[in-house]
Each structure stands twice: as C-alpha cells, then as structure tokens.
Amino acid sequence: MELILQHELSPEAAAAAKLWCTELYSRVVDQCVQLHGGNGYMLEYPVARHYLDSRVNRIYGGANDIMRELVARTL
Ligand SMILES: Cc1cc2nc3c(=O)[nH]c(=O)nc-3n(C[C@H](O)[C@H](O)[C@H](O)COP(=O)(O)OP(=O)(O)OC[C@H]3O[C@@H](n4cnc5c(N)ncnc54)[C@H](O)[C@@H]3O)c2cc1C
User: Fold this and answer.
1) Fewer beta carbons under 10 A from the terminal one: N or C of the chain?
2) Which residue has its alpha carbon closest to ligand 1 atom 43?
3) Residue 59: CB within 6 Å of ligand 1?
4) Which domain, by its residues, includes 51?
5) Domain of 52: which CATH number?
6) Pocket of ligand 1 contains residue 63 by CB under 6 Å
C-alpha cells in the first residue's frame, strides 16, 4: 500500500503481492470450510461465500499462473 501511494509499486512486486495474497486467502478459507464442516459448504453461511469468492481471485485480475510468469522473469 505504501509503495502504491509513493508511485513506486513495480508490476513484478504487484504480481507477487497478488499471487501471495490470493493463494493465502484460498488456503485460509479452505481451512475455515473444513473447520465449519458441512455448514461451511452451504451458501447460507458467509464462509461458503468466501470459499466461492476466494477461488475466482486466483483467476481474475490476471490469472495466478501469469503472475508466476511475471515473478519468474525477475529471477
Ligand atoms: C468475475 C469476473 C470478473 C472479471 N472482471 C474483469 C474486469 O472487470 N475487467 C477485465 O478486463 N477482465 C475481467 N475479468 C476477466 C479476467 O481478467 C480473466 O478471466 C483472467 O485474466 C483470466 O483470463 P481467461 O479467463 O481468459 O483465462 P485463460 O487466459 O484462458 O486461462 C485459463 C487457464 O490457463 C492458464 N494459463 C493461461 N495462459 C497461461 C500461460 N501462459 N502459462 C501458464 N498458464 C496459463 C490460466 O492461469 C488459467 O488457469 C473477469 C473475470 C471474472 C471471472
């Protein structure tokens, strides 16, 4: 956030941040669904909504495979 405000966020750093945050979101929500059991899978519950939303985060805004490509180019 600080880098954005200072206009210093590079595309590579943005890709790494997008990749990291969305993968972590999916991992955490997956554990939340497990914790809630069957209720965590039912759309009446917010955790199920997060499960659905977390999945598309790894696709839109630049698919995470593409983010990996962008990060890999800097190595
Ligand atoms: C709910 C939603 C809202 C959206 N809103 C917007 C919006 O407001 N503005 C906008 O511009 N777009 C929007 N999109 C489009 C979104 O950005 C694209 O879906 C996304 O960029 C992925 O492109 P694609 O769906 O064509 O998948 P594809 O590019 O066909 O990718 C399919 C799969 O192949 C993989 N893949 C593709 N190329 C490579 C590669 N070179 N190496 C390895 N793997 C690869 C991908 O990672 C993915 O797993 C939205 C999509 C959704 C689902």
Assistant:
1) C
2) 65
3) yes
4) 11-72
5) 1.20.140.10
6) yes
Domain count for the chain, please give it.
1
Structural domain includes residue 55 = yes
Contact 62, 71 (CB under 8 A): no
The answer to whether 57 and 28 have CB atoms below 8 angstroms apart is: no
> Quick one: DSSP state of residue 61?
S
d(CA 44, CA 53): 14
With pLDDT > 90 as the criterion, what percentage of the chain qualifies?
97
Does residue 56 line the site of ligand 1, with CB under 6 A?
yes
Ligand 1 near 72 CB (within 6 A): no
pLDDT tens-digit map of 19-62: 999 999 999 999 999 999 999 999 999 999 999 999 999 999 99
